[in-house]
Design goal:
alpha/beta, Molybdenum Cofactor Biosythetic Enzyme, Chain A, Alpha-Beta Plaits, Maf protein, five-stranded mixed sheet, 16 helices, about 40% helix
Length: about 425
């Protein structure tokens, strides 16, 4: 089953709001085996809406429209749908009663515009909107399903979950689908593709691999389609197990797990603790760690040592180290990690120091140069990384890479 999403509203096209509805619908449909063929945004214009609906009907099995169902003059979706389906607006008494009850509870008088929201095309199936005043509408024409929903996100989500998806599943046209997302860090996308080329070439015909890169990591998504979801799950899990054998050092988790969560799962059972010292990342590593619920059981705290003065006075970095090697060096990173571990009395410590940019680079240490160190009871290890010339991406990569390096050291302990 293929679908197209049509979002209606000038506010989307002028950038006043971001279209998050389409992304959410696409994700939910994909989970339920419905392929999104196209996403289209149109003006609050009857001709434009009709053209989009007509084009979509030629290509897909279901058309989902969001927006344009409010009480004001620029909300023209219902009248446009009447023209397309050759219908007229009629009063839907259950919806009117629902609207009246909502207004009574809020001690607000109902007016004509509010009442008009209970008008619906006479040939649609009304989808009850428990969370708002604009009902959803379901049409069928020439083997194509059309669904019109409010643009308000929480109302749209309610209708998709409670009305649209259950009805679509009853059609028997949806396929079973199973996804598994493998989270990797430390290997660039192009190199990763080479490492797993043979694996990808030998995937079963109904299993697809997608690369989803970001400054923080590269996610690998395995997706299988078929008739039996249980069998698809077994198939995908088996393929994920093969990946684990090929790139074990790069995989840190699955699904929506964060690197910090993965580290917490390693540290907590050992009853050990972590401290962080940051320069170029400016607190990002600490933020990533404290985003994990329950991290207080294993996270001691951090020192953001942006200036050399703080590196010296708080972390104990030697003056001669800074003079002889500079703030961005293996020696300074190691002393920062050792210092914060001692100051905060932690078992593990990670430190970052680098040149985020856009200025401050030299031929020997260009923008993007970052040293990361990890200190434990037994050792201090440091690595040099060279990222790009974009400050924001450098900070993000440094933060995630610091956690990945920490994870690797913990695994070796």
């Amino acid at each position: 089953m293929k679908a197209e999403i049509i979002t209606i509203g000038d506010e989307i096209l002028i950038g006043q709001i971001v279209d998050t509805n389409s992304a959410w619908i696409a994700e939910q449909f994909n989970i339920h085996g419905i392929e999104i063929f196209q996403i289209t945004s149109v003006h609050d214009d009857k001709k434009h809406i009709l053209e989009a609906i007509q084009n979509a009907a030629k290509k897909v099995d279901i058309v989902v429209l969001t927006g344009g169902l409010g009480p004001t003059k620029d909300d023209i979706t219902k009248n446009t749908l009447c023209e397309y389906f050759g219908s007229k607006l009629v009063l839907h008494e259950p919806t009117l009663e629902h609207i009246k009850n909502r207004f009574v509870k809020r001690n607000i008088d109902i007016n004509k515009l509010n009442r008009d929201q209970a008008l619906v095309p006479d040939n649609c199936t009304v989808l009850y909107n428990h969370l708002g005043t604009a009902p959803g509408m379901w049409f069928e024409k020439d083997d194509t399903i059309f669904v019109s929903l409010p643009g308000v996100p929480f109302e749209m989500k309610y209708l998709i979950e409670n009305e649209v998806l259950p009805r679509l599943e009853k059609t028997g046209k949806t396929k079973a689908i199973y996804h598994k997302t493998i989270l990797t860090q430390g290997i660039p996308e192009s190199m990763l593709a080479i490492r797993i080329e043979d694996f990808e070439n030998n995937l079963p015909a109904n299993v697809k691999l997608a690369y989803l890169p970001s400054p923080m990591s590269v996610r690998l998504r395995l997706s299988a389609t078929g008739d039996d979801k249980n069998e698809l799950e077994k198939l995908v899990e088996a393929e994920a197990g093969k990946l684990q054998q090929i790139i074990p050092e790069a995989i840190y988790g699955y699904g929506n797990e964060t690197m910090a969560e993965a580290i917490g799962k390693m540290i907590l059972p050992q009853r050990k603790t972590l401290a962080v010292a940051e320069s170029c990342t400016g607190g990002l590593v600490s933020h990533l760690v404290t985003s994990v619920p329950g991290c207080s059981a294993w996270y001691k705290g951090s020192v953001t040592a942006y200036s050399n003065e703080v590196k010296e006075k708080i972390l104990g970095v030697k003056t001669e180290t800074l003079i002889n090697f500079g703030a961005v060096s293996e020696e300074t990173a190691c002393e920062m990690a050792t210092g914060v571990r001692k100051v905060l009395n932690a078992d593990f410590a990670v430190a970052t120091t680098g040149i985020a940019g856009p200025d401050g680079g030299t031929p020997e240490k260009p923008v993007g140069t970052v040293w990361i160190a990890v200190a434990t009871d037994n050792t201090v290890k440091a690595k040099k990384f060279t990222f790009g010339d974009n400050r924001e991406r450098n900070i993000l990569r440094s933060g995630q890479t610091a956690l990945q390096f920490l994870r690797q050291v913990i695994m070796e302990e």
